[in-house]
Fold this sequence. Notes:
- By secondary structure, the protein is an alpha/beta fold.
- About 45% of the residues lie in helices and about 15% in strands.
Amino acid sequence: MNLGPRVAVVTGATGGLGSFVTRELAGLGAKLALLDMDPGRLDSLARQLDLPLDRLLTRTANLLDPQEALFAAEAVAVKFGKIDILLHLVGGWTGGKTLMAASAEDLTFMVNQHIWTTFNVTRAFVPYLVKNGWGRIVMITSPFAARPAAGGGPYAAGKAGQEALMLTLAEEVKGTGVTANLLQAKTIDIHREKRSNPTPENASWTTPEELSAGILYLLSDEAGTVNGAKIPLFGSS
Length: 237
């Protein structure tokens, strides 16, 4: 797979999944625009990638601010001339409390992380993909969005809202050459515990390698007919 012509935006780029996927895309020749809140971690990731300047843009951005999202999209378009791929990998979880025990701040945090950032990056970046006549949008969701677990109400609410936005977007980009899809994971197994220390609990966790494989398929030309999908990557456990 050669992504040489493609310009990929990765939000949450320095996270456990974001940094892994970023390295995969770099190895496949993509031009990368990396967004994150932490400038130090962005600089460190850029040094690890060691890409020529014409293939890399890093930018700190608070994606809860719609103007910052718009400015970031404009900066990417100015540098690279187009935007082809949007991987919105900003995550976050809070849970372990019943609804009676959870705070309003818990719900606000999850709504901000999953709904408002999705809304803002969609409005900022997707018009550039549509303009190209080709584009791929991928985000990560959870089966708990549809079937919440006890103690996970705020997280489930945030993910359900994110799913609603993405499935709406998938309908709205039909016929444009752009697709919008979701990969489902229960827990992202950043430390590969299900391999190093397998247990019944972590058997259904999903490694960055497994998520990256799903992402790369959705970025391919062969996946052009896949739109509005929620693809489960958490096994049968």
